[in-house]
Amino acid sequence: MVYIAEFVGTAILTLLGCGVVAGVLLAKSKAHAGGWIVITFGWGMAVAMAVYTVGQYSGAHINPAVTIGLASIGDLDLKLVPGYIAAQLAGGFFGAVLVYLAYINHWKVTDDAGAKLGVFSTAPEVRNIPANFGTEVIGTAMLVFGVLGIGSNVNPVGKETDLALLFSSGIAPLLVGLLVFAIGLSLGGPTGYAINPARDLGPRIAHALLPIPGKGGSDWSYAWVPVVAPIVGGVIGAQAFTLLGFGG
């Protein structure tokens, strides 16, 4: 059940998140040119809705960086990690395919190949790989640190955070969505804030495979950055939270 939940949760995340980008970037969409605030808020709400939907079943990691970060501090059994990640990547791919179908009439009328790729995956505004890598590390560290902090406000000090319990109801999922909204507003400008390997790699594969008119390349030379950097950032965020004594 936990793997199904991670698949469904990541699919919801990607459907609503990549969906808001499609609405803003693709031609003849009613949301066309809605701007960065629309995109960041849409992604924040995408995260919140995904967490509300599947949090009680798997803790709604919906992000390999979160999964690996939690495993690095002993909050997730290591044997579950490969299944979590596989489900997340598959969910990211599936959600992106649904976005393609939802906007089926808009690909052909959109001339900008970069905008089409931008619906599915991230790219830096200024291409400087070390700096881009650092931005993604910082953003993901803030994400995981913040998620653990939200959890610590619910559980008594010294008690292990039960994400499945925490993210099944109440305001916590909304707070996580607002955290993602804040990260997007504050740190998303340089790279588009992937902060999630499944959110970037799954849809990028979908972009490569789908018959999108005039789509151009999938920018595989950059694709490793939004995979590796968030994992590094996730571990740093989790370790920092624990080392500072916030984990009890």
From TrEMBL:
Keywords: Membrane, Transmembrane, Transmembrane helix, Transport. Its main location: membrane. The keyword Aminoacyl-tRNA synthetase does not apply. It is found in: Membrane. The keyword Acyltransferase does not apply. It is a multi-pass membrane protein. Coiled coil: none annotated. Pfam families: MIP. The chain crosses the membrane at residues 7-27, 33-54, 84-103, 129-151, 163-187, 223-246. Belongs to the MIP/aquaporin (TC 1.A.8) family. This is MIP/aquaporin family protein. It comes from Nocardiopsis rhodophaea.
